[in-house]
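Hi R.,

Here are the chain sequences for the assembly we discussed:
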Amino acid sequence: MLNFAYFIMPLVLLAQASDPGDKSASPSPSPSAVKTSAEGVESTDGVPGTDSVQSADDAKNIGDAADEADAKGWFSQDAINIAYLIAAVLFIRGMKGLTHPRTAVRGNMMAGVGMLVAVFFALGTGGLSYTVIFFGLAVGGVLGAYKAVKVEMTDMPEMVALFNGFGGVGSVFVAGAAMMYESVSMQGSIATALSGFIGAVTLTGSLVAYAKLKGIKWVPDGQIIPAQKMVNALLVLAAVALSWWLTTSAGTGASPYFAYWLIVLVACVLGILLTTPIGGADMPVVIALLNSYSGLAACATGFVINNNVLIIAGSLVGASGLILCGIMCKAMNRSLKNVIFAKLGPTADTPDAEEVYKTVKTSSPEEVAILFDSAQKAVIVPGYGLAVSQAQHAVRDLSNLLESRGCHVDFAVHPVAGRMPGHMNVLLAEANIDYDRLREMDDINPEMEQYDVALVIGANDVVNPVARTDPNSPIAGMPIIDVDKCRTVVVVKRSLSPGFAGIPNPLFAAENTLMMFGDGKKAILELIAAIKEG
Amino acid sequence: MTLITGLTIFVLAIFIGFEIITKVPPTLHTPLMSGSNAISGITLVGAVLAAGHPGWQTQVLGFLAVVFATINAVGGFMVTHRMLSMFKRR
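And here is the predicted structure of the full complex:
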């Protein structure tokens, strides 16, 4: 891996040189264009559609002023390509900014500026008619901005799922349109088929994932047709055959178009069939995978229209999704294949729930409040239940209250807690909880014995000690947060119903565990009241 | 552009992606997803070229592509910004 650093260095150096911390030093062929674009991003409160229109006006001025501008377009093809390169560098720098919370906001803005630069210069390509383009930009901009402003933080997984799908379908349409005017080539045809296939799988897969996360009832769940895996394999074969037809018939009348849209149709069905059997708790992996696909679809489209910036941006996204996917799988000790094709469930020797839960102790907020009164160090473990009951603000209040009474509070976050990678972190950040307080599983586990109280809110499988103790359990070997090693464990949960793995959790019946049954938010608010009274 | 040039760019970009993204801390995984999602809205470049091309079929497809890609890009960057501004140190 390290050797590749040498290949990457030149690009990285380029990236360093264009550090927009000093925007005036940006090596853009038209710095004023970059500047206006930057302002466009910073004013994210405004309506982006109007920003684009403004940029267009500016661009006309620049275009008039530029002596070397192409007679038909605003810029020469070389200028456009350099702008694409700058955009690609901005994307890379932007993603690099995301490696630390301090630099992340600026990183995201850089990527946004990159996007504006790329689109702005694309608009300057000769021979375009703008009515349709600007209408599309306005509609999409308003819809996107509206959704981005309105969405609740607890609904982020749904939104990302939906947007992945939009990215996919965008690629499907671009490749479909490009077939009609790009010159015919072997490379182009193969890339077109790939674009349509990946894009369409991303679209319908994302829509099913969205429906599952939203809990839309009429969308089918689980195995929806007999021998689903077999059918999936046949669909893939059909898509390969159709791609062959598309490639060999390229440039001959209507058949390639027919083949293309058939590929899209087949892939749409495949996307649905692949996603329906995957369970809710595996959604982080699925969303990460679809994220990766949306990037790869963009990448394939880049090969269709011979555009470097699409290839670079698309493969960055593809790599990002794949890495997240890998991290999620590792955090569940399962392979990607297992997540997508197998279903977790109790095995024959899974102990009976009633047997396990014989010694469960139910507690009251008052009793737990006394516990916190004498605690020096507490750790809060959030799970999906926290998101469902919107308890993040109540948890913040509890943590502040405990801190003011001299009890140190940390948060332990399992990588797959929630419905998407980093879901819990975003919710806790929304509630203004310092990110330094959020500790990773591997980091906090060795210190677990030092905590007086662990408060588990709506988590189950990620704190199930069976993963450590029982090699025959379906979650054997999955890394968990070792809350059972704390002096006392308080579990806030609606009922003793099993988690995703469908197995009982002996932690709930352990000698040092107290159960507080009820809705997460309500239970925390009651606990806060009890501590204040006590 | 030849296929080989394209593939070279593709492979190198994948490696850059791996190098950078493995360094993103778990705290920022959700913004990373929504942000990279916005970057995949780069198909907008292709969409713009298609929508501006003469011929009603390409314009219809191009228009739809522009709408979806713009939602992706604008919505993605804005929501990422919203999320990231919440990650503050007290």
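Chain B touches chain A through 82 residues (CB under 8 Å). The radius of gyration of chain B is 17 Å.

Let me know if anything looks off.

Best,
T.
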